[in-house]
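Hey L., structure's done. Input below.
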Amino acid sequence: MESGVRNLERAVGSVCRVIAYRYAVSKEPENFKKITVDNTIIQEALGNVKVDSYLHERITRPGVAIGLAFTQVGGRALLIETSKYSGSGVVNLTG
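Output:
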């Protein structure tokens, strides 16, 4: 449950260390009064984007949606899939 927060803290720390390193080796430290964190700094600090290709492949197909389940110990992402059937157009509710 806490691992996501810890990983976020580590990622922010990595970005801050990259900026501190750039400041330390800079010939003109007065240019560092205001720093904008952009994609190049984030990629330098964190590396390439981590994508679960299996999950990405499944959620980009039509008929698949993501749902969230909330439990006492956290939660989980659920893949909800649909199917198309030919039929009469009548919905039968049972139970």
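The chain has two domains: 1-49, 51-82. The mean pLDDT is 82.

-- N.
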